[in-house]
């Protein structure tokens, strides 16, 4: 899969993406990452990429033409299915399902905005979608682009050492993940749950599902409202609540 990031700070993206899971995926040619600086597509000696907003107001707005030309150059680098996404606080919230759908294209072009925003006509004419990493504002879209790149990359076949790891993550099935433990068995008087030490895989899976349901109920009840629980899951959640009380 190919990622292309349109950004005024290309080194920021390439440097951060060179570490961890994403960095290894790039080294193994599972993913390809390229960056495109809108300043390279300007036609004045100052390489101007922004201007004052019509109607007045604070801040500057990124101009249409440099962004448009940068996206067109990025599209020429891949002949497969392409999706152009503008990363913005006004976009739809990113979910695991949204990221899974993104894996189906061969090229994902991510627009990292800066300043007060970008010309709305670019969003309307050049972008396929608008995504947000949360209900807050950061200084630019580069960090959001890196979040998307990392989250999508780890869903691709061959990226993680254990193919089942991504399937067990929080939100992969609409629930938060269950608690995890490793050695030693005792820390400050707190023990690893006995079921995890018994070796009965059926009991372990049942415990993990109950904990995932319970943790979601405690921390993100909104997620449970969106999920159709099976009879078994409903019973496990009831058990969790009773045991908690």
From TrEMBL:
Pfam families: tRNA_m1G_MT. GO terms for molecular function: tRNA (guanine(37)-N1)-methyltransferase activity. Its EC number is 2.1.1.228. The gene is trmD. Homodimer. Keywords: Cytoplasm, Methyltransferase, S-adenosyl-L-methionine, Transferase, tRNA processing. Residues 1-226 form the tRNA methyltransferase TRMD/TRM10-type domain. It comes from Candidatus Methylobacter oryzae. Gene3D superfamilies: 3.40.1280.10, tRNA(m1g37)methyltransferase, domain 2. Belongs to the RNA methyltransferase TrmD family. Specifically methylates guanosine-37 in various tRNAs. It catalyses: guanosine(37) in tRNA + S-adenosyl-L-methionine = N(1)-methylguanosine(37) in tRNA + S-adenosyl-L-homocysteine + H(+). GO terms for biological process: methylation. It is found in: Cytoplasm. It comes from the Bacteria. S-adenosyl-L-methionine binds at residues 113, 133-138. This is tRNA (guanine-N(1)-)-methyltransferase.
């Amino acid at each position: 899969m190919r990622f292309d990031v349109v950004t005024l700070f290309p080194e920021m993206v390439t440097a951060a993406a060179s570490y961890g899971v994403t960095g290894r995926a790039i080294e193994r040619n599972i993913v390809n990452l390229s960056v495109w600086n809108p300043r390279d597509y300007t036609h004045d000696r100052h390489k101007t990429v922004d201007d004052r907003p019509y109607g007045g107001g604070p801040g500057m707005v990124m101009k249409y033409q440099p962004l448009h030309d940068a996206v067109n150059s990025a599209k020429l680098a891949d002949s497969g299915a392409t999706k152009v996404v503008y990363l913005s606080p006004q976009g739809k919230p990113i979910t695991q399902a949204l990221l899974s759908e993104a894996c189906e294209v061969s090229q994902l072009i991510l627009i990292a905005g800066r300043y007060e925003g970008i010309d709305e006509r670019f969003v309307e004419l050049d972008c396929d979608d608008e995504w947000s990493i949360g209900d807050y504002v950061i200084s630019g879209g580069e960090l959001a682009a890196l979040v998307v790149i990392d989250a999508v990359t780890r869903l691709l076949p061959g990226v993680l050492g254990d193919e089942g790891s991504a399937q067990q993550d929080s939100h992969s099935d609409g629930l938060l993940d269950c608690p995890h433990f490793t050695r030693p068995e005792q820390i400050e008087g707190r023990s690893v749950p006995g079921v995890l030490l018994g070796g009965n895989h059926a009991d372990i899976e049942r415990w993990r599902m109950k904990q995932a349901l319970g943790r979601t109920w405690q921390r993100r009840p909104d997620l449970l409202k969106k999920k159709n629980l099976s009879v078994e899951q409903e019973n496990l959640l009831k058990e969790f609540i009773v045991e908690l009380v």
